[in-house]
Request: fold
Amino acid sequence: AIRYLSKRHQERVQLIGDMLLQEDFDLVLLQEVWSERDYSNLKAKLGGCYPFSHYFRSGVIGSGLCVFSRFAILDTLLYQYSLNGYPYMLQHGDWFCGKSIGLIIIKISGIVFNIYVTHLHAEYCREKDAYLPHRLVQAWELAQFIRHTSKAADVVLLGGDLNMHPEDVGIRLLRGWTGLRDAFTEAMHFEGCEDGCTLIPNNCFTVKTELLPFPLGIRIDYILYKAVSSFMVKCEELKTTTGTAPGMDIPFSDHEAVMATLHIRRQGQAVGANLGTAEPMLADVVTEARTEVGVGLRAAQRQRYSTGRMAVLALLLLLLQAVAALGVLTGLAAGKPFPTLSFSLLAFLAIVVLLLATGLHLFHTIEVKMLQGTEEQMRMALRVLQERP
Amino acid sequence: AIRYLSKRHQERVQLIGDMLLQEDFDLVLLQEVWSERDYSNLKAKLGGCYPFSHYFRSGVIGSGLCVFSRFAILDTLLYQYSLNGYPYMLQHGDWFCGKSIGLIIIKISGIVFNIYVTHLHAEYCREKDAYLPHRLVQAWELAQFIRHTSKAADVVLLGGDLNMHPEDVGIRLLRGWTGLRDAFTEAMHFEGCEDGCTLIPNNCFTVKTELLPFPLGIRIDYILYKAVSSFMVKCEELKTTTGTAPGMDIPFSDHEAVMATLHIRRQGQAVGANLGTAEPMLADVVTEARTEVGVGLRAAQRQRYSTGRMAVLALLLLLLQAVAALGVLTGLAAGKPFPTLSFSLLAFLAIVVLLLATGLHLFHTIEVKMLQGTEEQMRMALRVLQERP
Reply:
């Protein structure tokens, strides 16, 4: 929902508000609410039904994440992903959103819920996905953040637009490393788009060409959950919207909404927190992810090098011009007309290139550091996995 | 320890390594190790005594944080502060460091330790501290991060350069909101600089003029701790270095090292985690911090506005020039000589101002969002504090 840019934006925010009022959920996790004014309007409208809400602020535009709840929000925390695309990819714009993880803590009948909402970097080209290493770093940070912050929670819930297909390495990493289970595969009853797809061709706001290899659509929005300590969660029902909103000519959004009914039960005996995937398999997933991060690291190192070289060349050009100008001023080239216009244009060009290349060099230096850091964390995780009896 | 810039840097890193080998600590938390090469050298040197270590990578230069440990590091997590000074304050340089919190988890005799190491934004002018709101946001994020990630820990330890005096609002907020206790005030035995100061005039690397109002020096480096669950921590001894290293003519660093001997004991009955400050007092501290964050917010909003206006003016100037150039091209001012040099210089100036002002505007937009987010989190904390019976 980008103000002034998204098609029929106002109308759709209103439709979403109406639907949330009518369905009367316990908890609503929204992504891509880019405008705080839309959030405020929704908050005013939904106040009666969802008295508690929170908007996560970050980046230039905002994180787009917000939460509406029937239960009091006891605490919140925001974690901004360390990598999130490139500032110069203006047409993709992910960098400006300050993509983050939002955490809220609520308590229902004495059960502590850690609720996470997030939105990972988009995938613009599946065949040649330049953002895969960034999205993998995000998936890893998401898994690590959940593991480290959920140790006192009874139930962990994650909802959001993960921009990953169910079989992608990032989602296997996230599920394996946190032990979260996928509501779609666990649901006892399902109703909605075939295969649980959330980006479908039968939605007038999706880009049809991107979905050509997937005639049914793709499933990239998830509700994941797990119970730690002595609780059990079951997904009784999972539903998705199916394109056009009931009685309207447009859908609520380009993505289909995912709605889960969860049943939470106290168990007799406490079961220790365990990982979701058998450990030898998990080690393979971490290794696979680490390889992809390594590919990204080498690309980032190349870009750091080439932008650094560009900056040095621009600096040399400027120095050369300074020497030439000095030559003219000291009268070495007296008599010859000085080409003022071309000279100043060239200097201008050199300064612009110097500034841009320096900025990019700094950016790619940060990128290299974060990819190295993630690779090392993954190596440590592998060591811990291998050392376990 | 900035390579090529810091005075007698090589010698001092070596001195620090020698001292760590000789003293044979259990755990060492270092800040301002800006060069990864220094870390690698230390790691090679200390490998026998401290077989486990971790360097936290972030920002352009690095976080400067690293850890050496006699015990296996089971897990790590990095949290980068959302605000950390201004990129254009090159002389202060904090922004480039990617100031962060490093978390490592270790286990000693079955006791789980969450160890945090951090370095907050420096204070350059105490009378007119432009960075106070940023440092307060960092103190708040530090407190929130510790609270959310330490729920399964038996013992929490925080060490680092907090750049705050013991009575400052940031340190009161941190201690009050996490329940951490100050090793200096709790120590049964103390040995070192008077008042536990860690930045003292009697150290040849400190800036004497900054310490003029504090003849004894200031205490800005801390070891804080608490035990959750059924454990008790006591600080048996606290020591600081005292300027010049033994037998040398230079100190190890511009800050004095803080060394604590902690005694950890299992307690008969579990005591619930509690806050460090009586709650009505804590509400006052949060209110005081929120007021300061509000002051920073208004300053950031003013800067966002003025940089935005500057960008618009530069754009208007460029448009005006374009109209003038069109006028010349279409022959409206035929006959008059066109001032090529001044024209291109002016265009160059306008473009540079436009680029810089736009960049700054985006930066201050992020700053406003983060300050608003922190203010709101603090408001929520106040509500929770007030609602408690």
About this structure: Chain B has two domains: 9-273, 278-330+338-387. The two ends of chain B are 50 Å apart (CA to CA). Chain B touches chain A through 44 residues (CB under 8 Å).
